[in-house]
Amino acid sequence: MPIYAYKCASCGFSQDEMQKMSDALLAVCPSCGKPDYAKQVTAAGFALKGTGWYATDFKGGGSKPAEAKPKPEAPAPACDTGACPACN
């Protein structure tokens, strides 16, 4: 649920309110009771609660993918004839 910042124009009381997007705007100040309680324009806010992707998928403890290690080069064939390309 989104969190909205509200402030009363009469008494200056401010508070964050968690509301559904479909809920009606609050108008009455919980501090003084006057109908001057208005939603403020703020940056988007949200709360991460409970178990979710952030707590289970990316929060340490998981195995990391193995790094690709270069394959070692094969040793040159040991020959004494000098007929193979590796000996020349």
Offer a concise description of the structure:
This protein has 88 residues and is mainly β. It has a domain at 1-47: Rubrerythrin, domain 2 (Single Sheet), CATH 2.20.28.10.
Characterise this structure.
The protein has 88 residues and is mostly beta strands. The chain has a domain at 1-47: Single Sheet (Rubrerythrin, domain 2), CATH 2.20.28. Helix content is 5%, strand content 16%. Strands 2-1-3 form a three-stranded antiparallel sheet, with no helix packed on it.
Order of helices and strands: EEEH
Spatial strand arrangement across the major sheet:
2-1-3
Shape: rod-shaped
CATH class of the domain at 1-47: Mainly Beta
Q: Can you count the beta strands?
A: 3
CATH architecture of the domain at 1-47: Single Sheet
For the termini, the CA-CA separation is: 75 Å
- Low-confidence spans: none
The CATH topology of the domain at 1-47: Rubrerythrin, domain 2
For this entry, what is the oligomeric state of its chains?
single chain
Structural class: mainly beta
| SS strand fraction | 15-25%
Percent helix, as a range, is under 10%
Taking Cα atoms only, what radius of gyration do you get, to the nearest Å? 33 Å
Instruction: Characterize the largest beta sheet: strand count, sense, and whether it forms a barrel.
Output: 3 strands, antiparallel
Mean pLDDT across all amino acids: 77
Helix segment tally: 1
Write the layout of secondary structure elements.
Elements: E1 3-8, E2 14-18, E3 37-39, H1 53-56
Antiparallel strand pairs: 1-2, 1-3
